[in-house]
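step=encode ok
step=design start
structure_in=
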């Protein structure tokens, strides 16, 4: 199995979720919940695109 480098967008998504968790623990403002939406979206999006790229690398290169 090929080991892939850590994706910076996944790191940003996890950071957003950590900030959201800390903000809700401290009863933060309403906009803090946008971090949950954005973080989950980025995380799922990058996991799906990485899986697609790994499944068929020739087609992923051609689409770029």
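sequence_out=
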């Amino acid at each position: 199995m090929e080991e892939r480098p850590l994706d910076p967008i996944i790191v940003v998504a996890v950071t957003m979720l950590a900030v959201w968790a800390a903000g809700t623990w401290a009863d933060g403002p309403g906009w803090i919940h946008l971090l949950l939406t954005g973080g989950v979206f980025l995380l799922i999006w990058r996991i799906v695109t990485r899986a697609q790229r790994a499944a068929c690398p020739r087609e992923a290169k051609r689409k770029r």
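step=design ok
step=annotate ok -> Helices lie at 8-25, 33-55, 57-63.
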